[in-house]
Amino acid sequence: xxxxxxxxxNLAVVVPNVVAGSPLYEQMVAGAEQAIKEHPGSSMKVFELxxxxxxxxxxxxxxxxxxxxxxxITSNPSxxxxxxxxxxxxxxxxxxxxxxxxxxxxxxxxxxYNQYEQSYMLGHxxxxxxxxxxxxxxxxxxxxxxxxxxxPVLNKMILPGxxxxxxxxxxxxxxxxxxxxxxxxxxxxxxxxxxxIDAGVDVIGVICGGAAQGVFEECGKQGKYVVFWxxxxxxxxxxxxxxxxxxxQNRLVYEVITKAxxxxxxxxxxxxxxxxxxxxxxxxxxxxxxxxxxxxxxIKQKALFESIKSGETVLQTPEL
Amino acid sequence: MKDxxxxxxxxxxxxxxxxxAAAVVVIVSIFILSKTPFSTIYYxxxxxxxxxxxxxxxxxxVVPLIFTGLGISFAFKASMFNLGGEGQVYAGGFIAAxxxxxxPSLPGVIGIFLSLLVAAVCGAxxxxxxxxxxxxxxxxxxxxSFLISNALxxxxxxxxxxxxxxxTNNLLATRKIASQYHLLRIFPPSSLNISVIIAILxxxxxxxxxxxxxxxxxxxxxxxxxxxxxxxxxxxGKYIFLPMLWSGAFNALAGAVSVLGTTxxxxxxxxxxVGWNGIAVALIARNNPAAVVPAALFFAFIEAGxxxxxxxxxxxxxxxxxVKAVIFFLITSRVIYNSFRRKALV
Amino acid sequence: xxxxxxxxxxxxxxxxxxxTVNKNVDLTVRKGEIHALLGENGAGKTTLMNILYxxxxxxSGEIFINGKKVFIDSPLTANRSGIGMVHQHxxxxxxxxxxxxxxxxxxxxxxxxxxxxxxxxxxxxxxxNKNGFKLEPxxxxxxxxxxxxxxxxxxxxxxxxxxxxxxxxxxxxxxxHEIQNLFIRLKKLVKTGKTVIIITHKLKEVKRLSxxxxxxxxxxxxxxxxxxxxxxxxxxxxxxxRTVALKPIKVETEIKEEALKLENVVLKKRRQERPILxxxxxxxxxxxxxxxxxxxxxxxxxxxxxxxxxxxITSGRLLINGQDVTNEGAAVxxxxxxxxxxxDRLKRGSSIExxxxxxxxLTNHHRFVKKTGEIDSSAADEFSSKLIDNFNIDADPSTxxxxxxxxxxxxxxxxxxxxxxxGLVVFAEPTWGLxxxxxxxxxxxxxxxxxxxxxxxxxxxxxxxxxxxxxxxxVMHSGEIVCETKNTEDIDAAVIGDYxxxxxxxxxxxxxxx
Amino acid sequence: xxxxGFSFPVIHDAIDIMTxxxxxxxxxxxxxxxxxxxIALEGLILLGAFFSVIFxxxxxxxxxxxxxxxITTMFIAFIFGAITIYLKANEFITxxxxxxxxxxxxxxxxxxxxxxxxxxxxDNFARLPVFDLPALDSIPIIGDIFLGHNIIVYAGWLxxxxxxxxxxxxxxxLRLRGVGLNFKAMSALGLNPKKYRLEAIVISGFTCALAGxxxxxxxxxxxxxxxxxxxxIALVVIYLGGRTPLGILIASFIFAxxxxxxNYAQGFINIPADFILAFPYIIxxxxxxxxxxxxxxxxxxx
Lengths: 320, 346, 514, 302
Ligand SMILES: Nc1ncnc2c1ncn2[C@@H]1O[C@H](COP(=O)(O)OP(=O)(O)OP(=O)(O)O)[C@@H](O)[C@H]1O
Ligand SMILES: Nc1ncnc2c1ncn2[C@@H]1O[C@H](COP(=O)(O)OP(=O)(O)OP(=O)(O)O)[C@@H](O)[C@H]1O
Ligand SMILES: [Mg+2]
Ligand SMILES: [Mg+2]
Known about the structure:
The complex is a heterotetramer.
Chain B: H1 4-33, H2 37-45, H3 52-77, H4 85-102, H5 108-137, H6 141-161, H7 195-212, H8 214-224, H9 226-231, H10 238-263, H11 274-284, H12 289-312, H13 317-331, H14 334-345
Chain C: E1 3-14, E2 19-30, E3 34-39, H1 45-52, E4 60-65, E5 68-70, H2 75-80, E6 83-86, H3 98-103, E7 109-110, E8 114-115, H4 117-130, H5 146-159, E9 164-168, H6 176-191, E10 195-199, H7 203-209, E11 212-217, E12 220-226, H8 232-240, E13 258-267, E14 277-285, E15 289-294, H9 300-307, E16 315-320, E17 323-324, H10 330-336, E18 338-341, H11 345-349, H12 356-361, H13 377-390, H14 406-419, E19 424-428, H15 436-451, E20 455-460, H16 463-469, E21 472-477, E22 480-486, H17 493-500
Parallel strand pairs in C: 3-10, 3-11, 6-9, 9-10, 15-20, 15-21, 18-19, 19-20
Antiparallel strand pairs in C: 1-2, 1-4, 4-5, 7-8, 11-12, 13-14, 13-16, 16-17, 21-22
Helix pairs in contact in C: 4-5, 14-15
Chain D: H1 8-33, H2 41-59, H3 62-86, H4 91-114, E1 120-121, E2 130-131, H5 134-137, H6 140-146, E3 149-150, H7 151-169, H8 171-181, H9 183-188, H10 193-219, E4 221-222, H11 230-240, H12 245-268, H13 273-301
Antiparallel strand pairs in D: 1-4, 2-3
Helix pairs in contact in D: 1-6, 1-7, 1-10, 1-11, 1-12, 2-3, 2-4, 2-10, 2-11, 3-4, 3-10, 7-8, 8-10, 11-12, 12-13
The complex binds adenosine-5'-triphosphate (2 copies) and magnesium ion (MG) (2 copies).
């Protein structure tokens, strides 16, 4: 679409699935809103593409085809692949991907989080807790992970990171990995958590959207622990969530959109964001974290975080 | 009878009254749910026709609905209930993609034909299994087809995200099929492709089978009154099994043409709802293959209208589903349908 | 005598097809009488009674019960006004017991919530005994004979304290003996002060039972008479508008080769000691009519199923035109030369949702199949039009069969079955529920079939019909043949009746070989 | 505790898992016996889950939440039934409409009043009380299997009994089954069969609401789509259970056991999870086919 010069910047925020229940999408919308608010005359609209991945391409095309948007921002590792052919049809359209990677496409800018590092830190923490002497920790060297479904980033980065992080503490720690089959069956998630706890697991990593509520509940009931991805918040289940590996998508989107509006964003480049770049992190200063996790563990965890951040520890990140 | 023409116009007016009632309800619900009702109404009703892209995609989304509508109709005609459309569609797409991926170098026409054929046969066998259980042991086909479909969906998920996943991208999908397997696009820039012609042929074929052939005659009689059929010397066991084969085959083709024509790979969960919607299409069409086309069009129009309103106006996914629900509540109402017919007759 | 019911100026048009079925109908019924409501199929009798019973609402008209105007908007109100109705097709729940069916809607309770089954059975038993019925309150409906089901329907109404009892064609499915019992009971009921309206097509019964009669033709009252003042032919003239031959004229035909042969056929049902068909052996020859009579529940319907190829037998052999077709199924039976007019017209004999054409071509449809698998529609059309003409069916090939009258549906079946006769025709209850004109027509056809040289089997619970038509008669009781005799002029219907009831059992099994 | 094979925790969990199937199934049975196919169970469960947790939070009381949640769901079931029965719409399509409406309506209300279409988590009311009798705890099987469930689980068992009683021992049940067995016979008695069908649908609204409440109140939160196909399983359970209350009890236990087992099995069987997820469905098909084959055989032998 051709834009007339005097018109303000128009942004399409395209959410695969729906916004609700997904911290990353919520943050994307919030970050974009903030940037738009600070630039009078610019505007944005949020689109939800729904649960059927097969329709994402078509819906994205419809959005682009309106010709109304100077840029489309979206967040999901699969989106660059989906948008490649759309970009061919609409050579003027600019795309911005967060949590996705594509390099060398002149219409596209992308930012991929190093979720290996993020998961490594969470695995490390989980291992410390299962070995440690918190009230819920047991003697078994077992941690767990409950996910909604398998997907490439999970299999290639998150799960290996989680395992490697745990094994860096004690190579004999095993990860009990289970799947719900969807993103919303909280009761099944809670049953799974229950059966994992029965099997000796005391810390569970969860990546299962809305269904996570069931894990919080079950772990809360049984006095076990949860580590959580992508969200800065411990308050969803104080005392239960013992670690939160944050992606600062909110800030990233805010900065990127600001650049886009001010026309300083560099397209044609894919950036990988590591812990050292400041967009992938681990939340250490949260009061719930401090009050729940013993100082000894926090010190070790902080040490790991700082050393990854400073580049002292270099992790061999797998290719996506 | 002598006034059969009159009768069909009366019938048509019954349909029109129902549609008008549905439209009124849609407009009222939009006024309640939307902050910009006029533009929402505009995009809902006009959006799907606004340009070639929307129009073509709407027409393209009619195609799988026609196939599932036919599939379910075939079963209904024989008084069989195929509740496993979802899994059969998914399996059809998966098998079509698998054939294309396993034999990537077949020449186009043969490859496409083979791929559709294998998909249809597999779909037929899947649904046929429920028919077989019913024929053999009188196991309720409604339930077995549903359960088998669910088990199948998980199994296919495994292959798509596991052994057949394309390692070079981050889609939950199989590798892309070779380009000679792609069905020819006929209405660029939309995805509309020659599968629409296959669908029309399928409608004609179904109509022919059901209403012109001996097979269809016996199938329909077995469905309408199986004791009468048996009395007349028809092997009714056969018409418990065969309709499920047809049903599964058509459902599988719905998936196969989506893969070969639209997505060019088997994406996880792509069948999302097509199987269910096929049941709705068949019921709206009262199991008549000829009426499946307008029913599927109507259905696709509602979806496309809701999508268009979603993209261009302030409607969200949920509101679209509420509007759709309201339409469903009325669309098969015999009271509304008859309200006009009665007056016309008296 | 006091007037018990008065219906004035009743009009009813069915909105679905725009057909006016009752036109200014007046009906007066006196207290304590048995009033016959007569008319051809489709005359509007049932409709009128459904209006009285609150199932259908009239377009206009008034109803007075004992001189008081009433508005009957549902069967419940009808019950409250003392009206009870027994429908042509029973409205019973097969899975429930007699008592449960009877008390449904007025159940005795134990405490506040609990259904008191014991009391229900006791109450129902007392109604049964008081009125001289023979029923077990705890028997399941599905185990009853048709006659017993009808008793249940009547008991149901008596339990509801009905004073005016409507019986819609109560005798059409009953055997002679059951009819007699029914009539005795009805007369008893009338003596106790109840009133009865009865619909029937059998003029003998009208004479035998009723005090007065009202005749409907095309929805209009064409006559009200004291039964004593009219004879059967006059009634039939009132109904049809012409004289109807009440008895078919027999013709003699040369007896030829054997068309049907049963050898020691035994049919057992699960969990039943005694076979339903017990060692049946008989033959039927071309050119003769064999009548098979029995009281319902004695294997008659199983025999029908057997001859139609609809059940498998436990042992024995069945041959059609010399071909062994034992347990081969209907398709093989038909190929071997069977034509079969079943007793259940709607469930087995036709597909009411399908067009007349599709009904007519069944069993013949293979003849129109082209190499492509297509049915040659023009040939099928021509075929069905021809049959419609030949049999004077009041329909087009494309008419939905369900919209036809009972007589016309029966004609559709006849036309299909008689179009191509290959030696053997089985008629089961061929005139159930048909009016006299239609019955006359069917009888003519049966005689015609025989004189064209086919073997005919008539399975019927109507002795009169059997005696009027058959050359030879077999009587079954408890699944066994208890009598086999040539039908001569001097045959005694009462003796046949005794055999049917199992009162006489001195039959020595002489198979009449030729 | 043990982590291998079949043992009591598997059964204990199965008893929790079966509750929504049991509840929705028993209500579905009532509609089924009245002669209608009810595929709206899924939507009704979702509505029940949503409204009970919402009202619990508004009133701050678990009991009132349950009460109003149930009433609201029954009201929606009433509308669904009235349209189906009195406007003579196709029951299958109107049921699909209920299922669609459930997802749409809950999201719209949720967004309008709580500002999110995602999880609604509440803390201002008590969790479902769990029934525990320390005295019985030590009894091996009883303690392990029958204790320590929330009250809705026990309510489910009670309701099976109540519905068995209502269906087979009361005049009402007699009439309701009569409607399903012979619609015309009932209207010939002036018993208004349509009314009974409508009531049957409203009853299914009642039990589905409880099923939904057991899901949302169990975790003190509403998660969009929390019913996750349980209504469909309930439908399966009705048929697998031979359309009797006791059969439904057994069938839902079998399915729940398969699911519970597959939950545990993920921990020690090394086959892809997708296959394990498919397992309960396969087991159920096999059970269904076996049951019908045995039935057929028995018919043949005797
Ligand atoms: N529900 C209905 N809708 C439309 N037409 C009907 C309906 N019921 C009956 N008719 C038509 O009304 C006419 C009279 O039917 P009715 O049943 O009253 O006749 P009848 O005198 O009882 O006949 P029969 O002796 O065959 O029982 C018939 O032509 C019939 O087709
Ligand atoms: N035996 C039955 N079993 C199940 N459903 C039935 C049965 N009989 C009738 N119905 C359904 O119940 C509804 C009401 O039937 P009823 O005969 O009371 O209505 P009606 O007003 O006479 O129908 P119509 O308008 O078609 O003449 C109809 O939709 C019908 O399909
Ligand atoms: Mg430990
Ligand atoms: Mg009648």
